[in-house]
Amino acid sequence: MTSPLIGGAELLERAVGYTLGTLRLVTPEALSRPTPCRSWDLAALLRHMIDSLAALHEAVDSGHVGLAPAPPTADLAADLVTRLKDQACQLIGAWTSAPRSTVSIADRQLTGAIVSCAGAVEVAVHGWDVARACGADRPLPGELAEQLLHLAGLFVTDHDRPERFAAPVPTSGAAQPGDRLMAFLGRIP
């Protein structure tokens, strides 16, 4: 298997495609439902996803990611989902047409491939979180999940736990790649 870091923009595109399919599950009634993300409801998760996509777009547009929070967004399901879909499409257009070789975040310089791969993990995993909050079992496609699982260990370390991620959840050796990924990130598959 080719390293996912080589095709970061392509991996991000596949993660966005998965998540776009999940967003169709969002209804106004679902916004107050809990998500697998500790202490977030679905509306908070969607707002976080909007912020994440904006940061990824900023990375490819300017080669820099600022750490200032994004302006607040509406809490209407249709507004949140429409904004996410629009941002996702613009993001993929930007990353596939003019990928960035380096991106600065605070005082660090990262390769564009690292940033797009981290974005792919973020987008796909939160797409799974959206499905779960909406009561759907929508596993990640196996190959995508396998590639993201290889990357997740680069981006999530013991230093990130328990603040940003819960402790890994045990899984069986026969678990699917998507279930292993979610378990590694502290989610119950």
Automatic annotation (TrEMBL):
Pfam families: MDMPI_N (PF11716)
InterPro entries: CHP03086 (IPR017520), DinB/YfiT-like (IPR034660), Maleyloyr_isom (IPR017517), MDMPI_metal-binding (IPR024344)
Mycothiol-dependent maleylpyruvate isomerase metal-binding domain segment(s): 17-131
Single GO MF annotation: metal ion binding
SUPFAM superfamilies per UniProt: DinB/YfiT-like putative metalloenzymes
Protein name, UniProt field: Mycothiol-dependent maleylpyruvate isomerase metal-binding domain-containing protein
